[in-house]
């Protein structure tokens, strides 16, 4: 079983003839998979996965694709591409929950069969770039509604005297401190799953 572990930096690096260098791409894949295996071997993680662990893995049975979605790593673009493959049209709300089949919906036998035969991929992104993007979009930008609870928690934790039941604004330093602390706690307890604080970005 193999998985494509791809890097997204906001732009695509290509050679002068428009094609990525296959050898360099293969080397990066090997390096990334080695790093991932080393991390998993030295950090605690769940051996029995729950529904919440698998809810961000979407499945396209028609095209035999499994996509592990990670917010702020091109998820909107790739969901749009998958929606286009299904002929859903440009006006579809691609983040609508019931638009996609989730990996947890299958039996253990069905999961195993798909893992062995489907094309599986995910994208990763330079962590600081992802943090900045999340902060700009979700904490000071156009999508503030999704961060209301997190912003309230940050203000309560770092500036309780400034807490406002209706709205709270945070700075980037508070944002980084909050998620760094939550991630450290999740990793130390083995609760670093897809539904964790980092995935909520």
A few lines on this structure:
The chain has about 200 residues and is α/β, with parallel strands linked by helices. It has a five-stranded mixed sheet.
Topology (SSEs and partners):
Layout (H helix, E strand, L loop, with lengths): L3 E5 L13 H21 L8 H4 L2 E4 L4 E4 L6 H11 L15 E2 L5 H10 L1 E7 L1 H13 L8 H11 L13 H18 L12
Parallel strand pairs: 1-5, 3-5
Antiparallel strand pairs: 2-3, 2-4
Structural features, described:
The protein is α/β, with parallel strands linked by helices and 201 residues long. The protein has helices at residues 22-42, 51-54, 75-85, 108-117, 127-139, 148-158, 172-189, and strands at 4-8, 57-60, 65-68, 101-102, 119-125. The chain has a 5-stranded mixed sheet with strand order 1-5-3-2-4. The radius of gyration is 19 Å and the shape is globular. The model is unreliable at 8-19 (pLDDT under 50).
- Rg from C-alpha positions? 19 Å
Helical amount among residues, as a percent range? 40-55%
Mean pLDDT: 81
Shape: globular
Q: Span between N and C termini?
A: 29 Å
Strand content: 5-15%
> Total number of β-strand segments?
5
Regions with little confidence, pLDDT below 50 for 5+ residues:
8-19
Family: Belongs to the sulfotransferase 2 family.
InterPro entries: Carb_sulfotrans_8-10, P-loop_NTPase, Sulfotransferase
Main location: Golgi
GO biological process, one term: carbohydrate biosynthetic process
